[in-house]
Fold Carbohydrate kinase PfkB domain-containing protein.
Amino acid sequence: MIDLVTTGWLTTDDIVLEDGTTSMARPGGGALYSAIGAAIWGGRVGVHAPAGETHAEASRREIGAWGLDTAGIADARGNGLELWLLHESDVHKQQVRKLGSSDPLSLDAERGPMPESYEQAKGFHIAPQGPDSSIATARRLRAAGRVLTMDILSDAFIDATRYADLAFLADIDAFLPSELEIQRIWAPDRIEDWLCRTAQESGTHVVGKIGAKGSLIAEGGTGRLTHVPAWPARVVDTTGAGDAYCGGFLAGLSSGRPLADCGAMGTVSASFVVEAFGALATRRPSAEERNARLAAVTDRVTAA
């Protein structure tokens, strides 16, 4: 049985760190990193995403070997989404689409339907993809008993203004943009005010991922704000940290955990991802190590 599903893009990443260290042609993308973040908390997690035919067979093999279900990974024409991930500092990095890459938006049509086994999952995370696709996916998946979360991109190769109208929040339980995405699309004077107001007006939980400072979680309806700190991880590669946070958050929300616990679970998932170089280098921690980090993060959660 599949417990949780992530749906979005897979990528093939050439990662270049600030010190010149590289990792080439590695499976990545929001659908993969968020699935890993969810799987750290147990259960069976499926990935619903298109992979370019050049990389599809190897991607399914390697992703399956990590322990994720790959029945939802479809073959897409061409090379799929190929990216240079260029780290200029601990904070600043660029995603640059390679010349041989497929057009990202064309891949949304090639994701195909979810396997029937995925449709019965209790929780779904809509990872970065084209805005029209992510909004339509939320509308289609909205059903009683399903928990839905969504993350977005504001990169130059998509029209992020499509997200400016927040009507789509009615179809999801939690929205998890980064601080940079909030600034680029909605440009609030204070992110805290925007989070509280959006959560109050929509009734949806709204999470601002604020990098090394952790996350701010505004409760749907009340707008009550909670700060969850980051874990002091031994950072190797920050690629996918925000996606892994989303996966851990989904694992908590779909299990009925309090919002503060969901944020702490997201933080713990991200902490293991940043300690590895590339998504599939992430190690599966023991339950004892994972839960020790969770307890330490939870102890430092505060009202904001």
About this structure: The chain has a mean pLDDT of 95. The longest helix spans residues 259-274. The domain at 9-303 is CATH 3.40.1190.20 (UDP-N-acetylmuramoyl-L-alanine:D-glutamate ligase).
